[in-house]
Amino acid sequence: MKDLKLYPALALFFLSLIWGYNWVVMKGALADCPPLLFAALRVLGGAVVLFAILRAMGRPLRMPPLRYVFPLGLLQSTGFVGCTLWALEYGSAGKTAILVYMMPIWLVLLSSVFLGERIRGLEKPALGLSLVGLLLILDPLNIKGGTGLLLAVLSGIF
Asked: Fewer CB within 10 A of the terminal residue: the chain, N end or C end?
């Protein structure tokens, strides 16, 4: 019975390994495929799998209203996936991964601006430290690969 408590930690460990190494695989794939074509193929592959799952579950395949699909598709699929792979063409896998997954910083800032949510308590110093970390990663005094860095940050914002 004690071994069962170890399974979630092992699952998290292996998920982290697979997810982290995925960035190296994507960077390698870009040697043979342009970034936006690779992004389109990646999204198309995911859509095929999701359609198959919906069909197997007996769920309807009708499309939701375009007012929901269009902005989400434009921001999530085109903006996020496209900019991520485009950023990988210009930058390293490690730095790109870190910049792309700084989404929580942008979520706090954008929800404050557009939704009027207040930043309070420990959120303020956490946000400040996050922004300092972002500046240290970007290293504005010694910027190399600026296009890749900008695309990675844009991907996280999308």
From this structure: N
